Every structure is written in structure tokens, then in C-alpha cells.
Amino acid sequence: MGAILQAAVLTMSSREIADLVESRHDSVMRTIERLADRGVVTLPPLVEVSNPGLGPKTIREYQVGKRDSYVIVAQLSPEFTARLVDRWQELEQYAANASPAVPQTFADALRLAADQQEQIDAQRRQIERQKPAVEFAHAVRNTTDAISIGDMARVLGIGQNRLFRQLRADHLLMADNRPYQHYIDRGYFRMVESVWIDAEKESHPTFKTLVTGRGQVYLQRRYGQQPEQAA
């Protein structure tokens, strides 16, 4: 169980969040730390737990509260927000069964029902707020179309040169504007080779970097508002 109940405060581990969004645990931890540095979330406690998989016997993970978990998932993969809602419902149901609070009066029962409905409404509002990002991800992630960096800059609403500078600064692109191999391996970029002929009729190979559908989702999530401050 990746979530724990301590002093009536339910938390979810960073490792469980990584499983939910199908991401590496170390990437999730870095995202939490970047968001905490920016004051978007509170830096959660770091605990050492037994490792259920291969490798060292113990690993370190963050214990994240409910509100901050939504912020973290929205930063990582907003299309998984509904999955996070379902998981929190499971954890809250488990906690309720582990420590039941049975209403003793009719007024208590009404208050409990109102509290539960408020939680459901809050979760629905959270999903509605995430809809634009989710729809963008679903529309683009599975496409086979790849676009140029210039077109991607227009999608983000920034200049092409500014985007190139930011991608180089963040080590997504090399100095010659070619993507690093591990970002190609992740399916974010694709290289297209062409040939140009100079005045002496000599042919020269050239390469152009294209952003895939998966890469468009990644860059939109990372640079959608303020590229220099993106996590």
C-alpha cells in the first residue's frame, strides 16, 4: 500500500504516483522538488521504506498530501488525473473501513453526507479544470504527424529562436539543434535528412529536427506558459 494514514492525515507515496502516471520514480521526485522550490507545493517528508523490487533493500520516497498530488500529476501527465481521483477514492474508502466513523445522530448523518458530496464535487471540478490539457494530450499523443520547431513555437505562442534557446539550455537539443539521443529514444523528436546543392553543384546532407505527437504533448506540458520557468 503506497499510501499511509498518520494522525488522520492520508498521504500517497511518490513511488505510487510514479506507477499511476507510468513514469520513473526519480523523475517524479525531481518534479516534486522543482515544484517545491517554486512554492507551488510543500516539500513533503522524505521517508525510507523497504524496496519491493530489485536493487537496494530500502529506498527513499516522498509522502504527498492529496492537494499536492493533483498538482504533481497535472505537471507530469494531466491525462492521468482521473486515475488519480479513482486511487484517492480507494485509499479514502480503505481508511474509512479501517477506522469507521458511524454517525450517531440524524444531524451527524446529514453532515457526513454533505461532506462526502463536497469531496465528490471538488474532484469533479478538478477533472473539469484539467480537461483542456487532457484533450490536448489525447488529440496529439497518438498522432503520427510531426511538426517543425517553428510550428511548435507557434503552438506555444513564443518565438522560434526563443524556443531553440530554451531547448538547448535545458539540454533537449545539442548546440547544432539536433536532439539528444535519449529524447529521440523516448519518441519526442524525429530527424529528417535532406540534401542541398551549392553553387559548385556539390551536394551536402542537412538535418531537420521535427517534434512528434508525443513530443508535442511533452513540450506543451513543460513550456505551455513560461518556458524559462518551466519545471
From TrEMBL:
<feature type="domain" description="Antirepressor protein C-terminal">
    <location>
        <begin position="126"/>
        <end position="223"/>
    </location>
</feature>
<dbReference type="InterPro" id="IPR014054">
    <property type="entry name" value="Phage_regulatory_Rha"/>
</dbReference>
<dbReference type="GO" id="GO:0003677">
    <property type="term" value="F:DNA binding"/>
</dbReference>
<dbReference type="Pfam" id="PF09669">
    <property type="entry name" value="Phage_pRha"/>
</dbReference>
<dbReference type="InterPro" id="IPR005039">
    <property type="entry name" value="Ant_C"/>
</dbReference>
<protein>
    <recommendedName>
        <fullName>Antirepressor protein C-terminal domain-containing protein</fullName>
    </recommendedName>
</protein>
<dbReference type="Pfam" id="PF03374">
    <property type="entry name" value="ANT"/>
</dbReference>
